Amino acid sequence: DLSDMCCHGTVVLPTLFRVSKTHQLAVRLEPRGIIYVKLSLMEQRKTFLDATEGDHEMQVFGLEAWRVVEREASGLMVPLLIEKCISEIERRGCQVVGLYRLCGSAAVKKELREAFERDSHSVELSENNYPDVNVITGVLKDYLRELPHPLITKPLYESVLDSMAKRPETTSCAVSDLSHVCVCAQATLRKLLDHLKRVASHHEVNKMTCQNLAVCFGPVLLSQRQEASCHGNRVFIDSEELASALHFKKHIEVLHYLLQLWPGETHTSRFTSFQTSVSFSYFCPAVLRDFLQHTGTVQ
Q1: What are φ and ψ of residue 24, in 5° steps?
Q2: What region holds the Rho-GAP domain (predicted)?
Q3: 107 in a domain, yes or no?
Q4: Looking at the structure, do residues 124 and 157 belong to the same domain, yes or no?
């Protein structure tokens, strides 16, 4: 069982690299163990686009979702990369054991990134072009990781943490203001949560439960700044102290909580009827119900 093999530890890179651009760390793992790693800071542009693209302006990666949607003018509320990758992964990847845990070939992934940068409309993710679905999952995670702002916003993150501290059926906390969040980002997060819930519905085959998916996506969908803010302006000079004190455990827990509450296949009608939205409100904590209302899922 893959879940028995998974250990994880966390290092918050922005805080770490304030001190030095190279570190050797002993990272404490959960549930047990230590891994020794050497980290060096490199510019992202040099890492992924190198000399073949020079100073080419980014068209997809690293840009806000609304900018990409506006430029692509596809009629969708989400970037074409999100739409195409999720569609293809669900078409042939939901039965793959350990989906989202493997990255696929770095060279092929770079090729696919560049294809989306050139022209998202012309990208064809067929099995003939990209036989390894792990390449597609890797590019999707790259895109989400490189967004300028996290899809799970600070207000939603804090509201979920508050909700987790109470009994769900008695929770009255709500996201006080999500109206400032870009509609495209809302639609992207909603589509991604739908997708992850669908992948988790095949967990008996792919071994990717909500918990395992949260481990993969928690650090991707939540900014390190949200966790680091809990420590104020404190700078961690000792690398081992940083590795143990700043981690993504809460990020994983928050996403796991959301995925557990997120409606499954029986509620994929997007709650367009009044009757459905009313019945849903009885079992959905206010934090999630308000989020769905702000994103347009509940009418």
Answers
A1: -115, 120
A2: 63-266
A3: yes
A4: no
CATH of the domain at 223: 1.10.555
What pTM, to 2 d.p., does this model score?
0.69
Q: Note whether residue 170 is domain-resident.
A: yes
Q: Which amino acid, 48?
A: F
